[in-house]
């Protein structure tokens, strides 16, 4: 994904990267239009929500990954091998596309989709291993990361600092993180909440009995939301994933996630306000910077809780 711009030697790296991001955007839009109609709410969610992030979609490769996850989710019911393969390729770049297969119907569809995803992911990682040194090194870095200033745990630590508590901000692993008192227990609490989210999703998978065509869509959005809000890191580009999954949900009239999708729009706008507009305030932990991130995180938390409740009510 990072080396793909080299396929266009007549362009600068940034020009080629931006062109690929725009192409991926077009792929997502076309997939949503085919599934829900060119004027459907799914298309409007994507085309209206993505510009709220300003330049971020053009500077990160999350749109490209979303261009694998969205078609995977839309294809998995009728063409499980294709859907699984696309999800596996996406998961080889960023792990979250694997969650698009959480809600696949039990039986043959799940077996085919999950097997195709595993084969595609293993093949992609093996190909990377031949050309790059340490292709899975990012996993070790993720394990070493602390509590990022924009995460839900970071908002807790920011409140502590605003109320007179101790705490410093340091630049580590490409992000600004808290160091000092309470960081370790907050980080551990985040990991415990992530484990609880996993168990909740597993329980849902075992107990879900009522299904509609929207169930895989709704489950994918719920899963990514839960893992986002419990993470020690919430980067603004994560909203790209959520916008894409919410847009897929809105292609079905049976979705339970319409109120959740609406909550994601102000959360996206506030993410851009936090970064890049007010980022100096955020890392300085001023009342304005801390307040913007806190409100954004509360919106994401509300969206995650609402998503889980509505998914459970619609299927269990």
Automatic annotation (TrEMBL):
It is a multi-pass membrane protein. It comes from the Bacteria. It is found in: Cell membrane. The chain crosses the membrane at residues 112-133, 186-204, 260-279, 285-306. Keywords: Cell membrane, Membrane, Signal, Transferase, Transmembrane, Transmembrane helix. One of its GO terms (molecular function) is hexosyltransferase activity. This is Alpha-1,2-mannosyltransferase.
């Amino acid at each position: 994904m990072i080396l793909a711009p080299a396929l266009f030697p007549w362009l600068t790296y940034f020009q080629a990267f931006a062109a690929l991001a725009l192409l991926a955007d077009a792929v997502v839009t076309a997939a949503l239009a085919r599934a829900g109609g060119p004027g459907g709410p799914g298309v409007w969610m994507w085309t209206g929500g993505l510009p709220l992030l300003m330049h971020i979609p053009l500077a990160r490769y999350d749109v490209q990954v979303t261009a694998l996850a969205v078609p995977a989710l839309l294809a998995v019911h009728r063409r499980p091998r294709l859907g699984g393969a696309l999800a596996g390729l996406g998961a080889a770049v960023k792990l979250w596309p694997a969650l698009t297969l959480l809600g696949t119907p039990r039986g043959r569809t799940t077996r085919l989709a999950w097997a195709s995803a595993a084969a595609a992911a293993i093949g992609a990682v093996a190909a990377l291993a031949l050309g790059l040194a340490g292709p899975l090194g990012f996993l070790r870095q993720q394990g070493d990361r602390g509590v990022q200033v924009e995460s839900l745990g970071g908002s807790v630590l920011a409140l502590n600092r605003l109320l007179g508590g101790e705490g410093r901000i340091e630049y580590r692993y490409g992000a600004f993180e808290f160091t000092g008192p309470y960081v370790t227990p907050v980080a551990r609490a985040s990991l415990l909440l992530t484990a609880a989210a996993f168990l909740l999703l597993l329980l849902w998978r075992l107990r879900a009995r009522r299904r509609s065509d929207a169930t895989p869509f709704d489950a994918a959005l719920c899963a990514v939301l839960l893992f986002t809000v419990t993470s020690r890191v919430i980067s603004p580009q994560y909203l790209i994933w959520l916008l894409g999954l919410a847009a897929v949900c809105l292609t079905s009239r049976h979705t339970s996630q319409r109120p959740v999708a609406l909550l994601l729009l102000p959360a996206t706008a506030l993410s851009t306000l936090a970064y890049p507009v007010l980022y100096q305030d955020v890392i300085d932990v001023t009342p304005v910077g801390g307040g913007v991130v806190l409100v954004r995180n509360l919106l994401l938390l509300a969206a995650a809780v609402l998503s889980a409740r509505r998914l459970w009510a619609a299927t269990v």
